[in-house]
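ASSEMBLY PREDICTION REQUEST
Request ID: AP-0331
Submitted by: J.K., bench scientist
Number of chains: two
Total residues: 326
Priority: normal
Notes: Please return the full assembly, not individual chains.
Input sequences:
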Amino acid sequence: MSQHISLEQARRKAIRLLNYEDGLWDILLGSIFVLLSIYPVTRNLLGPALNLLLFLAIMAILIAGFSYARRVISVPRIGIAKMHSTREQIVTRVILIALVLITVTAVVATLLSVPNASEPRTGVGRGWIDVLGVDIAVAVVTIGFFSLMAYLFGITRMYLYGWLIGVGNLASTALDLYMGYQFHFPLAIGGVIIVLLGAIRITRFLRQYAIPTEEP
Amino acid sequence: MPSSVPNQEGSQELLDIDRFIHEPARLMILTYLYTIESADFVFLMRLTGLTWGNLSSHLSKVEQAGYVEIEKQFANKKPHTMIRLTQQGRVALRAYRQTMQRVLNALPDE
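STATUS: Completed
Returned structure:
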């Protein structure tokens, strides 16, 4: 064992084991972005109100499934722990919540934007900053948010997720505006990659952590 | 004096080290418990990588020393053990770290 005792590394390891080791979070995240990638297609089929309702219902099912899977898969295998609430951790949490709120606001704004039939949103004939300025800002915030998470908790795959989602969303919007692709396949590819990485992780998790049978 | 031996001040610090905490498995258990509020037995076992029997044995010793509190509960009719570091354990680990840092700082460079 190393003689160097890093409490920060110990804390990060505890956070990783408690929240990100089982791959369920990855599957939930990837699924949400796959869902978002087909959102414009289903909006045209169902209309904005019904589509939003359907989207929220599927989101609720995904989150409920995630909580249930945590309870029956992860908790019996890795147990439970409560983390401290030090001042530094509270500040970190506040920053994370602020970034989550920014991202969620951007996503909701995108979901609620109803295309105007008389003036269709298109990028043809306009400057790219004018067309994609907001989407570039959203991409930067998304990459920043995931990079911060990766840095704070020592989860390197979060850097990849940030780029997959940030660039995927920007590319999807550009393809939609310039070429009329309603199915946001760059975002879908990113989401599918994240789901697959989560599936690999949960398979490894199940193999590595059997349910203990005894209790002292 | 060989170059790997700390100076006189460092040697005295070395003798003051809490040998009970210095044992690697116990040091690992206390370090992890220092960073979290409380954990159950399974979580601590996964975190430290110790076997069930080994962790159980070390936990009994650190509990007897007053460094941890072990609370046995029942969840869904199954026994459930929650472990937390006591204030005494927290102070002891902090003192151990400070002593170790002084000892390591007193070690001569290569």
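REVIEWER COMMENTS: Chain A has one domain: 8-208.
SIGN-OFF: pending second reviewer
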